[in-house]
Structure formats: structure tokens, C-alpha cells
Amino acid sequence: MRKAIPYGRQNITAEDLATVVATLQSDYLTQGPMIASFEEAFAQYIGSKYAVAVANGTAALHLCTLALEVKPGQKVITTPITFAASANCVRYCGGEVVFADIDPETYLLDYHSVEKLLEGSPLGTYHGIIPVDFAGRAVNLEKFKALAEKYNLWIVEDSCHSPGGFFIDSNGNHQNCGNGNFADLAIFSFHPVKHIASGEGGMVTTNDEKLYKKLLMLRTHGIVKSDHLYTNTIEFAGGDTNYPGWYMEMQELGFNYRLTDFQAALGLSQLKRAEEGIARRRTIAQKYEEAFKGKSFIKGQSGVVEGHAYHLYIIEVENRLGLYNFLRTQNIFAQIHYIPCHLMPYYRQMGWKEDDMPKAENYYKHCISLPMYPTLTEEEQQFVIDKVVGFYN
Ligand SMILES: *Cc1c(COP(=O)(O)O)cnc(C)c1O
User: Fold this and answer.
1) How does pLDDT run across 224-238, given as a tens digit for each residue?
2) What is the DSSP letter of 107?
3) CA distance 107 to 338
4) Which of these, 82, 162, 374, 389, is most buried using a 10 Å CB contact count?
């Protein structure tokens, strides 16, 4: 039996290993120099002013809703076709998740569905939008930004699938996912199936200095360690004319969402190969596209799109269950992304039900993600293609 072909997987090189080992042997296991180096290099790669490394993508999302001060009952709009964490971060702060349907052509949060929600409610009903660069395809945030300005909303871009992805704005410029030009905050994950792996890990990017400082504080218990920020008196702190060396203050209810230094070292080492990885992903997408062109069993696919980061390669097919089970017998582990979030039992409790999001639900009936990762060999990809085509013949 040939080796299993998953839908996505990490690639750890000898250079990655050497970097991690060197960091493990250094003076720092956590919050050492690798954190700042990774943050700096990541911000530069994405094109944002600031980056804050955190424990995972979910923690990154939670820090965003905390920094934006989401309050109980506040409504936030997101897509049902995403990993649940995109929505859950609103619930962590007691906010209310409002799903809007997808565009069946792009599988992304549909601008018109969002606009309809906003137009149908008094100003101030909604507080934010969380668009997701699903599968690696960049959301056109220029359009959403205009809506956000009109309705006074913040935007958190969930870019977990799209480091290195971009959309082309109305002036013809490339706008990288997470660059902060149109969103208040953006988040990334370094889970092994994502483009850059650090085991667990995440990043928040922003161009807003105030939010950046808040994220830093909330990442580490809400503690500040800087004389000019203290609110207790020097006398209380036990100093004479200055705050004593040990002094610090916990000013907000934060968390321990720090990344370790050796994970940052791995992330930094992986980041060096990010563009190479995307180029390979685009080549794989091209080959799938050509292989499936005009095939009657394919209902739709996003095709080869400029700026797509190809975290996933998704096709929509008839008899999806049959194909999925057949591929498993061939040791090909295709996957389904995603079961619509609004139909998870947790969200059904809140009143969401079938037919609420007809386009997302119809997409879910047919979608399947084929193997897509830089180390997938040409021979393996051909095997996958032959099996898919063979199943329908
Ligand atoms: C992976 C992922 C997350 C969560 O990231 P973790 O690092 O696994 O916590 C959030 N949103 C999307 C779209 C993801 O793919």
C-alpha cells in the first residue's frame, strides 16, 4: 500500500530542526529574542506595521475581540463556511454571532448578504465583521471597508488560510491578506496544516498602534511593566523617587496567550520558505484545474485565481460521499471544509437552523478538499487525479 496522502501537511527541513535545537539550547524557552524576530519578519512579509505572536489562531481571535471590547449582546457578522473559531471569538466576550450567506462563486462571505443585514437594521445594531480568506482566496476588503465606514463597524480579517495571498484593489494594487490597510486587525494560525507551521501558534497583525499595545498587554495577563503607565503611586509600590525594579501592574483581565521562543524559531525558519510554498501550491492548483476542466462530475470550482494562496483546493461534485469513501480506500484522505458553522449544535441552540444559509448549505453538500501541500509530489497528485476521474468513469 502506498503511503497515505492527506489533504494537507507540514514540511520540516533540516534547517528548521537546527534553528529549533539552537533555540532550545539558548537562555530562553519563552519570550526570548525569537519572538520579536518572528514578529518583525512576519509583519514585513505581510506588509503590516505590527505583528503580535500568540499561542494559536484561536487565541489570536480572542485577543482581537478583547482588544475591540466586544460586549455581551453586541452583534458581529461572519461566514458559516469557516472553522468554528472565527465565530466563537465573539461568544468568548458574550457577543452575538450573526451569520451571513456565502457567494457561491468564491465561497467567501457575500458582500450583498452583509449589506442586506446592515440595511435592514437600525444603525448601531452591528459592531463588527469577521470576513475569512477561506481556502486561501482573499476577501475584497476594500468593499467591506466602505461598508464598515458607513455602518461604523470594525473588521477582523481571519487570514489563517492566506498568508501570502492578496486581492487587487480598485487602483490595481496588490493588497496582501492581513496588511491592515482595510481591516482593524487580522489573524493567522501556525497549526501544522496551515502554510507556516510552528506546532501550535498564531499571529495578530495591525497598523493601529493603540490596538497593538493593547494586544501586547492582553497577551500576558493584562500586565504592564513601564513607569509611565502605572496608576498606583510610587509610594504604594514601595519606591522612594522611582518605581522599584520589581514593580508591575495588572491593569486588565488578560490571559497567558504567549508563544514559546522555540516555536517562534520554527515559525521564522518556515517563513523563509513561504513564497516557495505558495508557488508550489499554485502549480498544484493549475494541474488540478487542467485535469478537471470540462468534467461533468465537477459542479463548480474556484479555478485558478490571481492572489489565491491555495491553503485548500476545493471541488464540488455529485456523490461526494461515494468519492470521499472511495478515496479513503486508496489511502487518499480528502477532507470537507466546512460543515456550516451555524448548523453546529452549539449554534442551533441559538436558533440557527437548516435553510437559514441556503448557499452555504448547498455548497456543503458537494464540496471536497483534495490534497494540497508543497511536498505533494507530481506522481502523488497524478494518482489523486486518476482516482477521482476513475471513480466517476
Ligand atoms: C486554523 C484556523 C483557525 C484557528 O487556528 P488555531 O491555531 O487552530 O487555533 C481559525 N480560523 C480559521 C479559518 C482556521 O483555519
Assistant:
1) 999 999 999 999 999
2) -
3) 11
4) 162
Q: Which atom of ligand 1 is nearest to the CA of 56?
A: 7
- Residue 76 forms beta bridges with which residues? 97, 128
**Residue 218 and residue 171 share a domain:** yes
Q: Which of 62, 78, 81, 83 to mutate for ligand 1's pocket (most ligand atoms within 8 Å of CB)?
A: 83
Ligand 1 centroid vs 161 CA: distance in angstroms?
8
Q: Are residues 266 and 329 in the same domain?
A: no
Calpha distance 114→80 (Å, rounded): 12
Domain residues for the domain of 376 are 274-392
Q: Which atom of ligand 1 is nearest to the CA of 194?
A: 1
For residues 155 and 148, the answer to whether their CB atoms sit within 8 Å is yes
Residues 256 and 343 in one domain: no
Number of domains in the chain: 2
The per-residue pLDDT for range 19-47, each reduced to its tens digit, is 999 999 999 999 899 999 999 999 999 99
Residues having CB closer than 6 A to ligand 1 are: 56-58, 82-83, 85-86, 132, 158, 160-161, 189, 191, 202
Q: What is the pLDDT of residue 180?
A: 98
